[in-house]
């Protein structure tokens, strides 16, 4: 199966997002990954957002083993 992963900041008001984008401090990443979930297992979406780059992936809860490729963004 394919899964779309999207990570972004949430702001209190839309104008704050616009200001952050204008200042270059708003970070987001998205992409499509292959994901093969197994019955009885629980998965978590994890990632980081930052000025040196952003990334997001799915990992198995408990083991913290990545089960998808990492989606990288600016």
How would you portray this structure in words?
It contains one helix and five strands; from the N terminus they run βαββββ. It is elongated, with a radius of gyration of 14 Å. Strands 3-4-5 form a three-stranded antiparallel β-sheet, with no helix packed on it. The chain has a two-stranded antiparallel ribbon with strand order 1-2. 14% of the residues lie in helices and 41% in strands.
Observed structural traits:
1 helix, 74 residues, 5 strands, 41% strand, two-stranded antiparallel sheet, mainly beta
Overall morphology: elongated
User: How many helical elements?
Assistant: 1
Number of DSSP E strands: 5
Helix percent reads 10-25%
What is the mean pLDDT? 94
SSE-based structural type: mainly beta
The proportion of strand residues reads 35-45%
Q: What Rg, in angstroms, do the CA atoms define? A: 14 Å
Produce a short descriptive summary.
By secondary structure, this protein is mainly beta. Helix content is 14%, strand content 41%. It is elongated.
Describe the secondary-structure layout.
Layout: E1 2-8, H1 14-23, E2 28-34, E3 43-48, E4 54-60, E5 71-73
Antiparallel strand pairs: 1-2, 3-4, 4-5
């Amino acid at each position: 199966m394919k899964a779309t992963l999207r990570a972004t900041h949430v702001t209190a008001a839309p104008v704050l997002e616009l200001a952050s984008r204008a200042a270059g401090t708003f970070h987001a990443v998205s992409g499509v990954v292959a994901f093969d979930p197994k019955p009885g297992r629980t998965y978590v979406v994890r990632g980081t957002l930052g000025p040196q780059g952003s990334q997001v992936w799915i990992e198995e809860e408990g083991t913290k083993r990545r089960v998808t490729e990492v989606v990288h963004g600016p």
